[in-house]
Specification:
Elements (H helix, E strand, L loop, with lengths): L1 E2 L2 E2 H41 L4 H26 L7 H13 L1
Antiparallel strand pairs: 1-2
Helix pairs in contact: 1-3
Length: 99
């Protein structure tokens, strides 16, 4: 069975890549919004005196170790994502804009 010269397997693959891109775009948008909220909380806590610069440095130093591990895992995940596919890129952009 062919539709527009594409087999059913190819159509399912294109739809799957689009949905994967859409979900990754939504995830990135949500992570950015959470990061901005955390930044606002830290700035407010420093302005109100609940957080000192030295304790913030210690917290960031500790978070650096956790982020290094997370970065290594993300690199493994990125190597699997087909980000060169047009369907994935379209889904990613829609997920980032509408997410």
């Amino acid at each position: 069975m062919e539709i527009f010269g594409l087999t059913l397997t190819q159509i399912v693959s294109i739809i799957g890549l689009f949905i994967l891109g859409l979900l990754v775009g939504i995830l990135i948008r949500r992570l950015l919004s959470v990061a901005l909220i955390l930044l606002a909380i830290v700035i407010l806590a420093m302005a109100l005196g609940y957080l000192s610069p030295s304790s913030l440095v210690a917290l960031l130093h500790y978070a650096g170790y956790a982020l290094a591990t997370a970065y290594a895992k993300a690199q493994q995940f990125i190597s699997v994502i087909p980000y060169s596919s047009l369907a994935f890129i379209i889904g990613l952009v829609i997920g980032l804009i509408r997410g």
